[in-house]
Amino acid sequence: MTDYMLFSSYCYRALRRSGLPTGRAEGEGEYHRRWKRLFPLVDPYIYRLFVNYCGPTPDIIPEDILHRIIEERLNPRRYWDVYEDKTMFPHFVGTENTPVSVLARINGSIVLGHDFTPVKEPQRILHECPYNALILKPSVDTSCGYKVMKFFRIGDHYQASSGVRLSPEFLQQYGRDWILQEAVEQHPFTARNCNTATNTIRIVVYRSVVDEAPHVTSAYFRFGGRDAVVDNAHAGGRYVALDIESGRLAKSMFDEYGNRYPFPDADCIMPSWNRAVELSHHVARSIPHHHLFAIDMAIDKNGKPVVVEYNIGGFSSHAGYHVGQTVFGPYTDEVIDFCLKR
Fold it and tell me: What's the whole-model pTM score?
């Protein structure tokens, strides 16, 4: 409960910092009536902050109810671990839909190859690797781009912009669980605002508990800050809403604090949007134990959507709220009814 009280306090401070009213907001009564069905104490400040972005809709969800009640029922925690291990993504959604894996390590094992067989000579694999750049990241217990590193081919080796050289010795001390993949060569359009990070589309999919049909309920484009390796807002990135039906980009982009800026590519259509939606549905159907997904996709240089990662635990709603989109959209009542039955 303490974490959610801290988030409530964050929302209150964000209201004060932005000069927005902290008192009762339009539509707050309906918001309280809706969520008291699931828990008697309904935090007001989450609503009072995000109503400024989403408008007066009761579909804004109190943070504690989202995680302690809804997420626990839609995405049971006992199934998280293997599904969230990034080394397993190709097994669940298909190798053709994910970046090519080069090397990996699982639970402190010896280094494994792309087919999960032991690699006797990892240095030879690195030397013969055909990709211009590689991404190294922890495969478990990570978020917000923590420890993600990008290495570039320089002659006969790979090296990060910090000067760190990629070697078997470095990989051994990097951690117990990691994956080394090709860095997706992204589409010229998605690289326009940042060409150093792998910029992604965040697509939120709810797979219905009534008929198992997948539905995109929120979508936005994320791109990194200057010289960034990751596109996370916490690392200085920005995000901008995508129209779910058309893939059209909105006029405003936001930072992690909800500050609004003009977006230079407003009204452009995201390349391969329909293909990205189809792939998001495939991901949702491939993970049978869960019903709520936050999927990050890159669009490669040929216009092919690639699943960089998906998230099934610790769902983050605030970026979607900033761009005016709620977690479940028209399916909110369906989710509430399901939770009440459980």
Answer: 0.94
